[in-house]
Amino acid sequence: MRFPSAEGVPRKGAVFIPMIALAYFAVQLGVPLALRLAPTGSVATDFSWDMFSQRAECDTLSASAKLPNGKIKALRLERAFTSPQLRRLLYPGRLERFARFICDGLTATHGAGVGLFLDVQCRYSRDGELVALADGQRNWCVLP
Amino acid sequence: MKRRGSPISSAWSAWSALWSGDGDPRPLACFRIGWGACALYFAWKDRPRALSFVDGRYHASLFGDAWVPNQSMAEALLAIAAGGALLVLLGVWARLGALLFVAAQGTLFTSDLLQFRNHEYLLLLTGAVLALAPTSAALSVATAFGRGRPASSYPRWPAQLLKGQFLVVYAWAALNKLNGAFLDGWVLEAELNHYFPKSFVGALLRGPLHALEPAVASMLSSARVLSALSWAAATIEIAIVVTLVWPRFRRYGVVLGAMLHLGIAATMNVFLFGVLMIASYALFLPPRRWQAKPERASTLSKVPSSCTLD
């Protein structure tokens, strides 16, 4: 199928444009739909056009590093990240990657035997239950 | 005997017809100017972002452990993005300008999703369309000085694609708000209490000691008021989608949208996103004189650079 232009000459690429548009809008509708159907707090909602529609309130948010000599060092996440950045970090997949980054850095500085402990519990509605994104017991520097 | 096609082929023909034919280049040129101004302002305001790319910081890249620029590279990318936005604004090599913006700003955007912002994502998506569309055909420096090739007929698909994109944004913005946490005012409570005191209206409503007037402060903590505002926001966004889809009601959609974005800008300081959305209204509702009298190719360059919806 070729579309005629005003002069009756078929436009270049006219065959593919409806197909590309269909694929484009399938992504634009499908990605936010998939993110909306996922359990709240389980996946990051970037690319879903969720402007001002979500809130996470974290009653517990702490991170600590255990050095090879046994000393515990508190990591101030709220100083390293702004509040919106921190909210975008608090998803299971992202926490996993973030923990790997921190553990690599700790190992490079202090050597093997370091530990990272995260305790993150958030709620996603006024009366919602607290969801444990990180339970505080797990050493994230040790592979499960 | 006339043969009727299957429902699928009929639907495909109707879909294909949306993207076919020619249109007036001026509404898209109007949008290009609005987009260029927004992108230039964004790239300028975003300069401190380069500091976040200092070595040793964590970045949540879209592509896993992919390469992430360092601070000096981030500064260079922001300068390239600003240059590209300026080209688009002026309509000089606008496609190249949009491409430069999308490539440079897109690199920073995908390098750290912790800094994800919806207006940046929208600028990149719509910028990619502008990189493919010959938008300098009207209301550009090139045509004003008699250079370039003004087009009498112009492919309709870029404007259609952009209109579809803006409808998708409004529709998802509304649908995502249809959840208990938003509709009972819990989400808005946090957002308004954070943004409102620093906003233009908030500044006007401050009493002595720079605190909000007690009546205003109690409104911002009233679950009923916040819930009513939340329902209103979701309803208005749904109404905007419905009215913008039907040409007969578009003027109401434009008025509703302008009021919504001006209200958000005045009370929450969210400025750039609203300007970009309002710029898209030139695509939905071009000035009436453009609709009534399609211009000839030779006169397109003389169109006054007014983007008002008269």
Descriptors:
heterodimer, A: 144 residues, alpha+beta, four-stranded antiparallel beta sheet, elongated, disordered N terminus, B: 310 residues, mainly alpha, two-stranded antiparallel sheet, 16 helices, disordered C terminus
3D architecture notes:
The complex is a heterodimer of chains A (144) and B (310). By secondary structure, chain A is an alpha+beta fold. Chain A is 35% helix and 19% strand. Chain A contains four helices and four strands. A four-stranded antiparallel beta sheet of chain A has the order 2-1-3-4, covered by helices on one side. By secondary structure, chain B is mainly alpha-helical. Chain B has 16 helices and two strands. Chain B has a two-stranded antiparallel sheet with strand order 1-2. In chain B, α2 crosses α5 and α3 packs antiparallel against α4. Chain B starts with 6 loop residues before the first helix and ends in an 18-residue tail after the last helix. The C terminus of chain B is likely disordered. Classes of the chains: A alpha+beta (144), B mainly alpha (310). Chains A and B meet through α1, α3 and α4 of A and α1, α7, α8 and α9 of B.
